[in-house]
Write a structure and sequence with these properties.
By secondary structure, the chain is of the alpha/beta class. The chain is built from 18 helices and 13 strands. The protein folds into three domains: 3-217, Rossmann fold; 230-323, Tyrosyl-Transfer RNA Synthetase, CATH 1.10.240.10; 329-403, RNA-binding S4 domain (Structural Genomics Hypothetical 15.5 Kd Protein In mrcA-pckA Intergenic Region, Chain A, Roll). The chain has helices at residues 3-9, 19-28, 46-60, 91-105, 122-125, 130-136, 143-148, 150-153, 162-165, 167-182, 194-207, 245-253, 260-267, 272-279, 286-302, 304-318, 341-347, 354-362, and strands at residues 13-16, 32-37, 64-69, 117-120, 184-190, 213-217, 230-231, 234-235, 329-331, 366-368, 371-372, 389-394, 398-403. It has a six-stranded mixed sheet with strand order 1-6-5-2-3-4, with helices on both faces. Strands 9-13-12-10-11 form a five-stranded mixed sheet. A two-stranded antiparallel ribbon has the order 7-8. The radius of gyration is 24 Å and the shape is globular. The N and C termini lie far apart (56 Å).
Length: 404
């Protein structure tokens, strides 16, 4: 089975520019391909993780990944899938985010001995002469066709700045540069990148007269089409400081039954026989599949030790076994005693806001130890704690441990 068949069987492939040629190419040759990542934050999130999995599958079959960090394109911001213009970041923010991405990517991709390379498009984009660039490359892009693409069409009513309109040409030029510098023959990306990828494929074929290919992978969505990886605290980050390993584990442990099989196929390396077996479990039994999913994904992102801790904490909280020590823990000072519970939990970031806390208490959604909190004015006292520890349950599934 070639890597194309593997990607197809596991449900990654969304669109290809030249399917038969790509299939034959991946069967007969070892190629260099790239995926781009704009540094819009200081951490990768679970949507990026799907791209990492595609890269890892390709690398396992001997193909060379090029991780392109968008130090240059990040200065503009991709309008694809956005209803408004992205916030413009400073060069210092972009560089910091690029450095953070590099560290995280090394967990998933083997960069030793040239098996993969990491490049930054700031190296060639920031020094371009605008007039020369337009004369040499702008002539190959039809404004009519660009405006008809999904990434621009969706923005025309709300407004699209000329600043963002340059993005497609810049991304296309990236592919051309990587083709000439590193013999890169394929660009891969999420399915929302289809228009941008086609731009690069066509630019190389016109400008260089050489074959170039594009492939998009499916976006990480739920069975009813909603974007996956959103939590009440925001995005599901790969940085443990932004999303704790326990919260990361719990996200996958609590996904809908209908999404389990797809996530096992896309986000783990389990053999498809095992994916199909786990994905076919019904009713209560599907919870075993969710535990496997949560453990496997957490292990890849945060390491085996953190995955075991998260699993142990979940079993302690939900199954009455395992170590509570591994539950998300907030250490309080004794100054917290005498303050309102709602204030303490907001300061501890267990509540995002006081209004969230008031809503939960009003709806009987907050439990301290075994007692429901029904009074918004309730005060935290030392006698609520046992052995200097107090278990907090927020909603049905979110547990925290307060200690002092």
């Amino acid at each position: 089975m070639s890597v194309f068949d593997t990607l197809l069987e596991r449900g990654y492939i969304a669109q290809t520019t030249h399917e038969d040629e790509i299939r034959e190419l991946l069967e007969k040759e070892k190629i260099s391909f790239y995926i781009g990542f704009d540094p819009t934050a200081d951490s990768l999130h679970v949507g990026h993780f799907l791209g990492m999995m595609v890269m890892a599958h390709m690398q396992r079959e001997g193909h060379r990944p090029i991780c392109l960090i968008g130090g240059g394109t990040g200065m503009v911001g991709d309008p694809s899938g956005k209803t408004d213009m992205r916030r413009m970041m400073t060069p210092e923010e972009i560089q910091h985010n690029c450095d953070c991405f590099k560290k995280q990517m090394e967990r998933f991709i083997d960069f030793s001995d040239g098996k993969a390379i990491m490049v930054n498009n700031a190296d060639w984009l920031l020094g371009l002469n605008y007039i020369d660039f337009l004369r040499t490359y702008g002539v190959h892009f039809s404004v009519n066709r660009m405006l008809a693409t999904e990434c621009f069409k969706n923005r025309l009513e709300r407004g699209l700045s000329f600043f963002e309109f340059n993005y497609m040409i810049m991304q296309s030029y990236d592919f051309l540069e990587l083709h000439n510098r590193h013999n890169c023959v394929m660009e891969m990306g999420g399915d929302d990148q289809w228009s941008n990828i086609i731009g690069g494929v066509e630019l190389i074929r016109r400008k260089e007269g050489k074959p170039a290919f594009g492939m998009t992978y499916t976006l990480l969505t739920t069975s009813d089409g909603r974007k996956m990886g959103k939590t009440e605290k925001g995005a599901l980050w790969l940085d443990p400081e932004k999303t704790s390993p326990y919260d990361f584990y719990q996200y996958w442990r609590n996904i809908n039954d209908a999404d389990v099989k797809r996530c096992l196929a896309l986000l783990t390396f389990l053999p498809m026989e095992e994916v199909n077996r786990l994905g076919s479990l019904q009713d209560q039994a599907i919870n075993e599949a969710k535990k496997v999913l949560a453990y496997e994904v957490t292990k890849m992102v945060h390491g085996e030790e953190e995955a075991q801790k998260a699993q142990s904490a979940a079993e302690a909280l939900f199954g009455g076994k395992g170590a509570l020590d591994n539950a998300p823990t907030v250490t309080l000072t004794e100054e917290a005693f005498g303050k309102k519970v709602i204030d303490v939990l907001t300061e501890a970031k267990i509540f995002a806001t006081k209004s969230e806390g008031r809503r939960l208490i009003t709806q009987n959604g907050l439990t301290l130890a075994d007692s429901k909190v029904t009074d918004i004015e309730a005060v935290l006292t030392e006698d609520m704690f046992t052995d200097r520890s107090l278990l907090v349950r927020k909603g049905k599934k979110n547990y925290f441990r307060l200690v002092y």
